[in-house]
From TrEMBL, chains A, B:
Alphabetized GO MF terms: DNA binding
Alphabetical keyword list: DNA-binding, Transcription, Transcription regulation
Record bears the keyword Chloroplast: no
Domain HTH lacI-type: 2-56
Keyword Transport: no
Name under which the protein is recorded: LacI family DNA-binding transcriptional regulator
Pfam family, any one: LacI
InterPro entries: HTH_LacI, LacI/GalR-like_sensor, Lambda_DNA-bd_dom_sf, Peripla_BP_I
CDD domains attached to this UniProt entry: HTH_LacI (cd01392)
Amino acid sequence: MAKINEVAEAAGVSISTVSYALSGKRPVSPATRKRIEDAVAKLGYSPNASARMLAGRRTNIFALTEPLRTDTHVPTHMAFVLATAVAARRHDYDILLLTEEQAVSGMKRVASSGLADAILVLDVAPDDERVALARSLATPTVFIGVPDDHEGLVCVDLDFEAAARLAVEKLATLGHQRIGMLGMTESAYEKSNFPPRVRAAYEHRAAELGVQTFFRTSGPAQTDRNGCRVAVSEMLAAGVTALVLHANEDAHAIVLSELDQRGVSIPYDLSLISVGNSFDIDTLARPIDSLPLIPAESCNRAVELALESLDEGHRQPGLHLIAPTYLSRDSIGPWVGSTSDEPEAPAAM
Amino acid sequence: MAKINEVAEAAGVSISTVSYALSGKRPVSPATRKRIEDAVAKLGYSPNASARMLAGRRTNIFALTEPLRTDTHVPTHMAFVLATAVAARRHDYDILLLTEEQAVSGMKRVASSGLADAILVLDVAPDDERVALARSLATPTVFIGVPDDHEGLVCVDLDFEAAARLAVEKLATLGHQRIGMLGMTESAYEKSNFPPRVRAAYEHRAAELGVQTFFRTSGPAQTDRNGCRVAVSEMLAAGVTALVLHANEDAHAIVLSELDQRGVSIPYDLSLISVGNSFDIDTLARPIDSLPLIPAESCNRAVELALESLDEGHRQPGLHLIAPTYLSRDSIGPWVGSTSDEPEAPAAM
DNA sequence: TTGAAAGCGTTACCAG
DNA sequence: CTGGTAACGCTTTCAA
């Protein structure tokens, strides 16, 4: 725990020179720099974080607010938490956790005490109470996810609508006339912000292209392992020739096993595309085409926006939607036309 | 962002009196206190965290190091992360995240810069490299989990051995002569610290009581949904009349569904006890008796130990094992003696 | 019960 | 290229 003045003495220079040599904010001659570096090494000097914060008027800490509602998919969420931490560290920032009951009150606290330079918001709800709070705070705040009312906020997210549209277009181009979507759990369509956006874009684009759509959720709850199977069965029975998946990793695995059991071959009998998946698609038993939601991408962008906001005045409110990328795994193919046992076209569900 | 001197002026008192009135470290007359509180309210004053840290020589921040290895069960892990955050806040502390690549290097960083007052260690491996590091740091460090070599360290954990023994004793008392354990995934027995301890205690206590044991892992990997079914089938086939579960939530659900399909009735045909489960046992389709690992309990204790360590000199190295509690859900019953179709006793596995 | 002032360990401005 | 020194905003000792 040596202090900067000890380093200065050992190197025979002034305190300010040591500071500048370390920060690089002022040129220092190679000779003195060397003496300082030696002194630092010998004394094992490391600048005191608290003093640095006070003098530098910057804590190098981002607060991460994450209420973690009961219906949030934990592994997905964790991937985002880790991604923010990694992204922050690249810019020499640390992440301070504001969870559960502290998610809201903690925001006020770190803002008014100046503990955090900026706030990153995770687990965004459509009617998130942190929206109003963020507007009232002087501390820059970046939402990772898009609340219904995002006027004046900085938000980052995958362009889910574009991803859904792209999936539909791919399938329509291949001749599919009846496609289905397996969505997330029912509650996700009430409590989360993007599932409804995906569904709406999917249906809208399909209508534009004259493709008939079907939709099923993964079931009422995350614990329900059967919901997916039933949903898939029903859509197959309805004559669907392609399936868009917007669900968590478990649901993907269940769908694949169900298809496997039924002897449905991909992509010959059925085309499959995953949209907005935030897990590694290649760990599935049968990797499938995807338009993934990449946590690192969203979080890197969020951190960059947070940093920009620090340079007072440079705040740019608005949606920062990330263009989706299509990853091919040969799980989609042309629809080979009507076969003998094609069922009657039922009403859309 | 009012400052303390503004509050002092507004209240017509000195800076130090404001500080003392707010911290309560010195008696302040009711009259002045009131004037100060009014000034604080009017100005919306909130002490600056950085200045407080520097002057108070305490950051009120705990670093949480969590490498999050690939084979770590994420929901369980997350429960611990949240529990540390909640426990810390109760003592006015915040949690700073050190994940993945930062798990080790970050420890050095926050220790040498004085960013954290203490370090909490999660996701402890048997041969954890953070053990040696913790010994070399001046910053108090508390392990939540027990590494093989814990000489001189402060460690908190459930007394897994006691829990395993208790489970065996319960079953032995009820007359069971052949019991099985469904353990975690195979890799958990190499890369984590407590699974081997549970298994060893289970087998040792059973041997003492003359009970024959069987053991199976949940399969090679977390993604393998079939491992549990096979494991259970094999143990049932071997004539096991009671099962001790030391596995994650998914595995519990799979076991229950398998037993249900086979028409095995609990506790009449089979007794079931869960050991070291860190999820809510009552969300299972059929709640079962358990000796749970309660994240909040471990983390509260860890935070308390960390705080004690701050009062220089009060450090008490050693294992702090939490006594297990037995939660009854009527999932164990007496063994009704040998029935007609009892299989031959095979060699223990 | 209260006040004055000396730190806490840096950063960054102003001089040279 | 380098040094002196005034902040940074609070805590806490010393004095009254």
